[in-house]
Each structure stands twice: as structure tokens, then as C-alpha cells.
Amino acid sequence: MSMMKNEYNAAILIVDDLIFIGKRKDEIGPILQGSLNKNRYIIKELKVVPNERQEIVSVLNRWVYKNRLNLILVSGGIGLSPLDETPEVILELVERRFPGIEEELRKGLEDNKPDAILFRGVAGTAGDSLIIALPNEPEMAIECFTLIEPAIRRALQLISGEKNDL
Question: What is the pLDDT of residues 150-162, one digit of tens each?
């Protein structure tokens, strides 16, 4: 009989210029933090950065390769403006994409069809970390996270090489 890991390290990255400079309150970070806590993730960091490629790259590289976090949730910078490069930055790091998670995220947005169609969220692994880009609206972000959380936990078990009895 093998032991399954119940807790995973996690971090939340909010990409938003207005939150970064203090002109808007971060509502997504605390909501995601609460849901991660409820689901037994150990939150190592919640960070807000401006919508700048190098800032995003720097944080993600540190969390993946230095801190070796299991799960990284990213919110923001996934829109259609020229500055929104979060998906591209994530994909530069990702070694394996998880299209099933990406599809489920879109399904979670089906009530808001235009947003679902335009949603540029991505998911995949870099090193031993699972990185997922969530919507940048609090309600949508938590709905999507709740929808995919069981799959996230299973993916983390597989990524970490845990043996389990199914």
C-alpha cells in the first residue's frame, strides 16, 4: 500500500498594472488563496507584478527552478491587448501542455460565450511545476479553479511520480 501526498506547494501570480501600482484592490489573489487553503495546498507566495514580460518570466523561473513549487496559478495578462503576453511567457517555459485542462477552463466560461471563445488560458508543466493561467475576473477564476481542482491534484500526483492504488 502506498501513501499519497495530500499537500502540495502552490503560489499565485497576479499580473495587473493597476493592482501593482495600488490603483485597484486585488480580489483574485485572496479568493484563490482561500480556495487553495481549503483544498490543502500550502501557499508559499502570492505576488502581484505589472503586465511586463520580464517581470513575469523572472517570477515564474524562480518559482519553477529555484523554489520548485508544485502548482503555480497565474491570473491576468491573458487579454487581447498588445501588452497581454502571459500565455506566451508561460508557453516559453512549458515543456508539456495540458490541453484537457485548457478545454475545461473554456467550458467553465461557457455562460459567458464571448469570453470563453477569446480566453487565452494555458496549462502545462515546466520542471516539476504545473502552471495554469486562469481568467482575470474573480468569479470566473474561482469557478474555473473549482472545476479543474480534482484534475490538478491528479496531475500533481502523476508529475511527482507518486504511486497510488486506483
Answer: 999 999 999 988 7
pTM value surpassing 0.85? yes
> Taking the domains of the chain in order of start, what are their residue ranges?
8-159
Least Cα distance to 118 among 126, 109, 127 occurs for 109
Q: Residue 17: what residue type?
A: D
CB contact at 8 A, 163 and 2: yes
Among residues 86, 24, 94, 14, the alpha carbon closest in space to that of 54 is found at 86
What burial class does residue 150 get, using C-beta atoms within 10 Å of its C-beta: 0-12 exposed, 13-18 middle, 19+ buried?
exposed
Question: Quick one: fold of 8-159?
Answer: Molybdenum Cofactor Biosythetic Enzyme; Chain A (3.40.980)
**Residue 161 Rama label (left phi>0; alpha psi -120 to 50; beta):** left
